[in-house]
Amino acid sequence: MSQPFRHADGGLVDRTRPLTFRFGDRTMTGYAGDTLASALLANGVHGVASSVNLGRPRGIVAAGVEEPSAVVQIEAPFPEPMLTATTVELHDGLVAHPLRGQGWLAPDPDPARYDAVWAHCEVLVVGAGPAGIAAAADAAAATGDRVILVDERPPRTSKLPAGVRLLTRTTVVGYYDDNFLVAVQRRTNHLGSAAPLEQARERLWRIRAGRVVLATGAHEQLIPFPDNDRPGIMLAGAALVYLRDYGVLVGRRALVYTTNDSAYAVADELRGAGVDVVVADTRADAPSADLPGARLTAVLGDRRAFGVRVADRQLDVDVVLVSGGFSPVLHLYSQAGGRLRYDDGLGALLPDGCRQRVEVFGSAAGVGLPRCGPPPMPEPSDADGWTFVDLQRDVTIAEVRRATGAGLRSVEHVKRYTTAGTAHDQGKTSGLLTSATVAAALGSSAAEVGVTTFRPPYVPVSFATLAGRDRADLFDPARLTPMHDWHLARGATFENVGQWKRAWYYPRDGEDMAATVARECRAARTGVAMMDASTLGKIDVQGPDAGEFLDRLYTNVMTTLAIGAVRYGVMCRLDGMVFDDGTVARLAADRFLVTTTTGNAAAVLDWMEEWLQTEWPNLGVWCTSVTEQWATVALVGPGARAVLARVAPDLAVDVESFPFMRWREATVAGLPARVFRISFSGELAYEVNVATWHGYALWQALTTAGAEAGITPYGTETMHVLRAEKGYPIVGQDTDGTVTPDDLGLGWALRKSTKDFVGRRSLSRPDTARSDRKQLVGLLPEDPALLLVEGAHIVEHTPLGPPPVPYLGHVTSSYPSAALGQTFALALVASGRQRIGERLYATTMDGKLAPVQVTSHVLYDPEGARRDG
After folding, report:
1. pTM for this entry
2. Cis omega before residue 806 (within 30°)?
3. Which structural domains are found in the chain, ordered by start?
4. Quick check: 820 and 748 in contact, CB under 8 A?
5. Residue 313 CB: number of other CB atoms within 10 A?
6. Residue 808 has pLDDT above 80, yes or no
7. Are 255 and 230 contacting, i.e. CB atoms less than 8 angstroms apart?
């Protein structure tokens, strides 16, 4: 198969290695070293996509990462969406499709591997053009320092000075504080089949550099004119790249439309390759132009530029090459905190000082760039058509003028109004044009308007690359309790709580989740049951000031706690809102054991350390996480005392000897243990703690000791039902960051003394003392079988009036309850405690309103008679 637009010679491709690929419904050939874009152009294909909003045909515009239009879907060897044809390296068997703005992901996991590496160097040079290679050579020769040279293209030269490490196919995507940069390297071929273990498909480089040199070049800019988005309209410099690097002629008859002198060299080289070229220059004083002082006013043809009207002449061309000046690539410089200044002569932004150790070389610093005036703006009457400033976002000059007409003056605001510069290319070829359009509309200058902020990443980065090897089973550490294998063997279904795998429920043959939970709840309420509670956060707090420290963090007082006693406690943030809750047990005069919610264990420890290290460094306190050091079994139900007595014969378990909220050291099943009389179910309950390596043995011993009583293991879903029936809140489920202890009915846990604690001052604000705050209450649906949806809105009246409808609150927890004989819910409702006994309405999934009765949030055994057995 011929490649009609491949020049007879020239280019850096390997013509001895032909490659076959498919684009859309066409099978074509290219050469090793081609990109998909260069191979398509060699086959005469310009149109490769449709615009995202308007569906207009779009073609190849550039030759590198600045490509705004030619976005394609790769189908083989592995589906990959939203890639620019200019950066996809051609390989044999490649299958690609045109796109309109979005693609599709693979239905199967990516078989390739991705990884990451850290690197350190004295000098990092970004860009391996002449300026970058010279800078790398100077750095290596002058100091002998470690030098890393990064370039986004495949290898183009082997002539590197000694001591320089070259990373090709590597794009620096982010520049952060302290000269920390992140780069993405494509290994051999970005879309090749799964690479061997030593070669990942893409590698994330995290580089710490003593000094950075940016030799990143400059991007050529577009020119506004009607229908400037047609396939066949390209950047002039891109045409030269395709000729020099790939031996490809982008057309036979070309119009070069320019605002500066750089395009003349392009025209000369294209003429030398046999292309008919006409040069139209917008500047009237351009004597070398075929058409000086000319304006391109129309693009002829249907889906592609096959002719133009310029300077009142109609030209028969098959490609239009535009050069609206150059924008130095200062994205990384700006990310590093560098200041930019506008140069009127170059019509471009230049570096103007940076707080980090970074230098800018070559055209990125404006060196060698041609002088260029502002782009020619169409008259307002001509701007109503399709004159584009951002090709990928379909943003026209008319839209920019509409934004400024609506009163927007900041280019940042115009960006968000129009979405210009927010696509994959981040405005690389349209940023200056957008600013010039805003400036023209406001009667201002580009220097005054400026450009939008450059943010990382410089080019799109796949989630797979960012994840690296941290995916599938390696995505997040799975924390397992010592009893995990037992739960697996008994068919438990698990849920993820933080990083823990917690037994959710234990279904028997023929049971669904509802039946299983109902059975487990009955066992806990009427017999004996047990739960693996090892995941609860446990923090050992020691030191002479440990009690004082806990007094400052908890809303109630802990220094008055006796050794051997346990107290429930609530922590608040500085704003007075509930942060976490749990128990505090006093182990010794200078030692406490704090328990936290499973998901908040790390956050609470971090909170403690923050206060100790930044606010109260004078306190003698040491905090140690001991969550993994203890295995915990909650033994629950009326029969719990008898089962514990069998395995701990030397422990007095009667109510008088072992009252509620006390702990004892004992030998349980022959194992040294701490036993706590704590209940999160409202039933008689004990929490037995043993060293982690004894956890499985304890579980087995309790299973055996309770077999005659029908001991039943239960999971987290049953735990939620039991605690909700008692009105015990779960932080993070029944709270949303706007809830105070009093809102939860925990006003009794707020100390009465004047001694301060974190959040106390905020609790005295008028807002936190309002009587109409949302408060935790219970809800009983009038239909006892109706299970309310968690998150359902609560309203006062039905039918609903015109919007806005007053919103009273929402459901936080909802369960069916065998103990109550119906479903129930907990909810946060405005003035909730004052509404007890009222009828309100909750939204349902089918859009209806269900009547509910407001009750106390304690729906089961409100007297607490069952906790002592």
Report:
1. 0.74
2. no
3. 14-100 (3.10.20.440), 219-325 (3.50.50.60), 491-534+630-722 (3.30.1360.120), 537-629 (3.30.70.1400)
4. no
5. 12
6. yes
7. no
